[in-house]
């Protein structure tokens, strides 16, 4: 599967998750962005330019600044809380039932929110993620969180989790880019109604001189980053590029007024080498 039949046409277009909650196709990731005014300003810029989804995590150690930014853009009347979609994740050290419940409360407190839109298990740590998932199910049943999902889960992790889960994950957020296309995982998730989401869609800048991407970008008068992000969306993948630079935030969001051909989509997918810039989910040692 390389192309979706429901391609988003605007930055605020949403995909409906299997529990009925809708989330934006495009969001702002804040991985490795330090607490402080630069992050607050980046989120303000993103909201001003149409972004409505912000993705953070406990381990990023920046939830307080994300919360400050949310507070400011709401107070300034740029957006309402209901228009925003806020995601965070429970870290590996907190993957127990009570520990996960406590971690959720800690994230809410730092973010200054009463409820998250999406809460994810960050990594599939062997022997721990099922208890954490039970905690997420509790939070969901109590109405404390609008949707629950996982991150960095491979097919066998999902199969194992779903053997005992009462509630199926709505999202699987994974490393995904032209050198790691995750086609088989996408097909599995689609079969089970789980939405795939891409982190590191630009491979931390490692694809910006690739000749195939350069040629396609030249043909469209676009940047390579825009071509990659468009490829993601046309595959039906929720995407969260990271940037704190306003010009790049704007550029990353300006991908809804052109389309890639089926041939171009295949050319980009053919770049795949199953190469990761992040850890292997089967060998978690942190």
Automatic annotation (TrEMBL):
Substrate binds at residue 122. One of its GO terms (molecular function) is oxidoreductase activity, acting on the CH-OH group of donors, NAD or NADP as acceptor. This is Glyoxal reductase. Keywords: NADP, Oxidoreductase. InterPro entries: AKR, AKR5G, Aldo/ket_reductase_CS, NAD(P)_OxRdtase_dom_sf, NADP_OxRdtase_dom. Residues 37-273 form the NADP-dependent oxidoreductase domain. PROSITE patterns: ALDOKETO_REDUCTASE_1 (PS00798), ALDOKETO_REDUCTASE_2 (PS00062), ALDOKETO_REDUCTASE_3 (PS00063). Gene3D superfamilies: NADP-dependent oxidoreductase domain. Belongs to the aldo/keto reductase family. The keyword Kinase does not apply. It comes from Paenibacillus bovis. The record marks 89 as: Lowers pKa of active site Tyr.
């Amino acid at each position: 599967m390389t192309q979706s039949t429901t391609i988003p046409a605007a930055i605020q277009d949403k995909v409906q998750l299997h529990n009925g909650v809708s989330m934006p196709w495009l969001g702002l990731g804040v991985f490795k962005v330090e607490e402080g005014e630069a992050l607050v300003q980046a989120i303000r810029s993103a909201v001003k330019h149409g972004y409505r989804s912000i993705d953070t995590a406990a381990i990023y150690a920046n939830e307080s600044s994300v919360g400050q930014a949310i507070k400011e853009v709401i107070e300034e009347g740029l957006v309402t809380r209901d228009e925003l979609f806020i995601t965070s994740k429970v870290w590996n050290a907190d993957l127990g039932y009570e520990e996960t419940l406590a971690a959720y409360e800690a994230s809410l407190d730092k973010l200054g929110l009463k409820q998250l839109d999406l809460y994810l298990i960050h990594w599939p740590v062997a022997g721990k993620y099922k208890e954490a998932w039970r905690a997420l199910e509790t939070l969901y049943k109590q109405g404390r969180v609008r949707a629950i999902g996982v991150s960095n889960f491979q097919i066998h992790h999902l199969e194992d989790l779903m053997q005992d889960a009462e509630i199926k994950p709505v999202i699987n957020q994974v490393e995904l880019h032209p050198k790691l296309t995750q086609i088989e995982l996408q097909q599995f998730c689609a079969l089970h109604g789980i939405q795939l989401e891409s982190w590191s869609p630009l491979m931390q800048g490692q694809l910006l001189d690739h000749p195939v991407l350069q040629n396609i970008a030249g043909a469209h008068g676009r940047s390579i980053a825009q071509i990659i992000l468009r490829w993601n969306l046309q595959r039906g993948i929720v995407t969260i590029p990271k940037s704190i630079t306003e010009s790049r935030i704007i550029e990353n969001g300006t991908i809804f007024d052109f389309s890639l051909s089926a041939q171009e989509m295949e050319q980009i997918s053919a770049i795949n080498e199953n190469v990761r810039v992040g850890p292997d989910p089967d060998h978690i040692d942190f």
